[in-house]
């Protein structure tokens, strides 16, 4: 089992679609093992988006993430990092496939509803960045036999 980090960005919070997005993960059979609302600082965003530090839009995306609180989530499942990236869709909401979260809810590159870790290495670093150990829960999910059978 893997755990990945998802952030419901201010675009999800402001538009009142947090519940719809969370519901998609639950219906897919992904287990929510951590979730909280937080206000992000410029410092934590500079670290989180350090791979984009040279881009002209670096300041803008950090500011956009501070327009309102966000919801950070730890999601658990088999291959969940990859599965959640697929559910999210590509970065630009206008290019994202219908049926994906960005494809269904976003018309923007910047305001694209969610962040999702893109590799096991980034999931590990990002979970540590946004959660302390006692905020990620290990509990049994009674649907597991139905979700995965003998996978
Ligand atoms: P990802 O979120 O799909 O993994 P990244 O390239 O890591 O994409 O970019 C992080 C975030 O920065 C994107 O989700 C989006 O909000 C924003 N972003 C990326 N490229 C652009 C751009 O060209 N203009 C404005 N914002 C951008």
Automatic annotation (TrEMBL):
Its EC number is 2.7.4.6. SMART domains: NDK (SM00562). It catalyses: a 2'-deoxyribonucleoside 5'-diphosphate + ATP = a 2'-deoxyribonucleoside 5'-triphosphate + ADP; a ribonucleoside 5'-diphosphate + ATP = a ribonucleoside 5'-triphosphate + ADP. InterPro entries: NDK-like_dom (IPR034907), NDK-like_dom_sf (IPR036850), Nucleoside_diP_kinase (IPR001564), Nucleoside_diP_kinase_AS (IPR023005). It is found in: Cytoplasm. Residues 1-138 form the Nucleoside diphosphate kinase-like domain. GO terms for molecular function: ATP binding; metal ion binding; nucleoside diphosphate kinase activity. Its cofactor is Mg(2+). One of its GO terms (cellular component) is cytoplasm. The active site is at residue 115. One of its GO terms (biological process) is UTP biosynthetic process. Belongs to the NDK family. This is Nucleoside diphosphate kinase. It comes from Proteiniphilum saccharofermentans. The gene is ndk.
